[in-house]
Specification:
Layout lengths: L18 E9 L4 E3 L7 E3 L5 E2 L3 E10 L5 E8 L5 E3 L5 E8 L3 E10 L4 E5 L3 E4 L2 E5 L3 E6 L10 H7 L2 H10 L14
């Protein structure tokens, strides 16, 4: 009979800046848009509002800016108040090897089952038991339904706009680009 346990414990830090970590969030169903400055360039949208019972994803990007190969452990967590999707892990440690001047990404998915304000614990990177990089702590507000402050997207115009707003949107946006203007949404 063998028992294997793994625990998360506070560690000393050694933040030198050779390892960089950042975290981005995205809407799984509406992840990309086309750049208005550079037509044809696909860019990832930032999540402007979080809605209950909608699946979101997170990409954690780890970069080795040193000239040597690194064996690292990356600790990621779904935000507080969420339920993980495609996995049972609320917290997970990934062992990665990064060559000199290289980057690796880790993705995970989750949803918020209730309305409220929730803290997102930052991802962190450790090496030989010492934390070498930490992401930012952020807080998100989760709402029951999406609200539109401006009429910049087709969804906002169709939900809150007048007939004149719809016509103005069609005049000023590239209606032939399916990512900007989806005729099926009308």
């Amino acid at each position: 009979f063998i028992i294997f346990t793994k625990a998360v414990a506070e560690a000393d830090s050694d933040l030198k800046g050779e390892i960089l970590i950042t975290q981005r969030f995205f809407d799984v169903q509406d992840r990309y848009t086309e750049s208005e400055e550079e037509p044809g360039l696909q860019v990832e949208k930032e999540v402007d509002q979080y809605i209950i019972n909608k699946i979101y994803g997170s990409t954690v990007i780890v970069t080795n800016s040193s000239s040597s190969r690194q064996q690292l452990q990356v600790l990621v967590e779904v935000p507080e108040g969420t339920i993980p999707v495609n996995s049972l892990d609320y917290t997970k440690s990934h062992n990665i090897t990064l060559n000199a001047f290289s980057t690796q990404t880790i993705e995970f998915f989750f949803y918020f089952p209730q309305v409220g304000k929730f803290k997102v614990n930052p991802p962190n990177v450790s090496k030989r038991g010492k934390v070498v990089a930490v992401g930012k702590v952020i807080e998100v507000e989760v709402k029951l339904e999406k609200t539109y402050a401006t009429l910049e997207t087709l969804s906002a115009v169709l939900t809150k706009g007048s007939q004149e707003d719809v016509l103005n949107f069609a005049r000023t946006k590239n209606i032939w680009n399916r990512k900007v203007f989806d005729f099926n949404a009308i």
